[in-house]
Design a protein that fits this description.
Rossmann fold; disordered C terminus; disordered N terminus; globular; 409 residues; four-stranded parallel beta sheet; 14 helices; six-stranded mixed beta sheet
Length: 409
């Protein structure tokens, strides 16, 4: 299961087989969107369902296989259920018959490990009402909310929706600002956007669109132009931008064109600060200089896109890093949020894309195994800036030293 292009809040439904997870989804949706059966194990792999919860808004509900599935195939389904926790914003744990055991404890452990808030719903209360003792036991597990219902009786969803509203992180449905702390009212922001073979026909790529919108949201002025127009624009207008943002592939050209007293960074680094593990990127990027012959580098693309002959992740970054280090390195690219082809400890460096299509939580959890294993992590834009010799200038707007312009003067 991957979040892909859906940036709505993701809510995962977890629990044992036949506890009524699919019935809960149908209750929230107000319609039959999930298969309901009296037979355990109806739901197999995690399935995403997009709809609007009345009183809350549009969401993606993730219907998962039972955590108590059995057999070799069942274990694979359980593994996928557990993997899905990395990509959700809120978990709903469905229990029934006043039962809590090792399966619920396993889910609870994963919720805690991934810092996922969760609520507990005791379902099928028409068959066996919740006891006060069980309710107290569950509440001691520190869920963000607890409720006993019977989906079969089609109760009002008001109380459940209120629980979701209180429990789900605000960051999952409110878009934070890319530039709000870097620019002021009326500032001119220069956006350098190449139109090349990787640019979608008739459109700008998503990070560029997000940056333009954020400039406008902050009551500033966005000037968008191609790289070959920068010098003429600055010369003819005598405009001094408050900030210049470039595509990472154009760092060298932009560094030469933008005056030294104008802060310069890239769209990818903006996204790295907003959505990535920025502190660990800052620590990990300089480790590029320590790569040795035979080291394996993992590049993580968090979406699937058309691969061109000069693809940034598959061609350009490997070429630039190899030229910079002078080492014989091995590169592997993993697209989407699928499992890695080998143990994370077999890599010497992990390079994450900007992650424009996914959430910060998904990126942080994607990188967590590498961070915990002590493997350096970085970001496409920061890695490019480093090997092209303008790393300090590119990160200066976001670091503590940016208060003084000495880092980019």
């Amino acid at each position: 299961m991957q979040k892909g292009k859906e940036l709505k809040p993701h809510i995962g439904i977890y629990g044992r087989r036949n506890n009524g997870k699919s019935s809960l989804i149908n209750l929230l949706a107000g319609q039959q969107v999930a298969i309901v059966s009296d037979f355990a194990g109806t739901t197999t792999d995690p399935v995403k369902k997009s709809f609007e919860i009345t009183g809350f808004g549009p969401v993606i509900l993730v219907d998962t296989a039972g955590i108590d599935d059995v057999g070799e195939l069942g274990q694979k389904r359980v593994d996928k259920t557990l993997q899905s926790i990395n990509h959700i914003d809120l978990a709903i744990l469905v229990v029934a018959a006043n039962t809590w055991g090792e399966h619920e404890d396993l889910l609870l452990e994963e919720f805690q490990k991934t810092d996922t808030p969760f609520i507990v719903i005791h379902n099928k209360s028409d068959l066996e009402p919740v006891t006060a003792k069980f309710a107290d036991f569950v509440k001691a597990k520190h869920p963000a909310g607890f409720l006993s219902i019977s989906c079969k009786e089609k109760p009002s969803t008001d109380e459940l929706v209120n629980l979701i509203k209180r429990a789900i992180p605000e960051s999952s449905y409110r878009t934070p600002t890319l530039l709000g702390d870097l620019i002021s009212y009326g500032d001119i922001v220069l956006l350098i956007t190449p139109i090349d073979v990787e640019a979608p026909a008739g459109r700008l790529i998503l990070p560029q669109v997000q940056a333009i919108r954020d400039v406008l949201d902050n009551d500033a002025v966005a000037v968008v132009l191609k790289e070959r127009e920068v010098d003429a624009f600055l010369r003819k207008t005598q405009v001094k931008p408050a900030l210049a943002i470039t595509d990472s592939q154009l760092f060298v050209k932009a560094d030469a064109s933008i005056p030294r007293d104008v802060p310069l960074t890239s769209f990818s680094i903006l996204l790295a600060r907003l959505k990535g593990d920025f502190d660990n990127y800052l620590k990990g990027t300089p480790k590029i200089s320590e790569l040795k012959d035979g080291d394996r580098v993992l590049l993580l693309e968090s979406c699937n896109h058309h691969v061109s002959c000069d693809d940034i992740g598959r061609v350009k970054i490997p070429r630039w890093i190899s030229n910079f280090t002078g080492k014989q390195l091995e590169y592997e690219v993993v697209a989407g949020l699928d499992a890695l082809p080998r143990d994370i400890k077999e890599y010497s460096l992990v390079i994450q894309c900007g992650g424009c299509m996914i959430t910060r939580k998904q990126i942080v959890n994607r990188l967590r195994p590498a961070v915990e294993a002590g493997i350096p992590v970085t970001n496409y834009g920061m890695a490019i800036a480093y090997v092209q010799g303008i790393y300090q200038r590119a990160i200066a707007p976001f670091t503590a030293s940016a208060a003084s312009k000495s880092d980019y003067l």
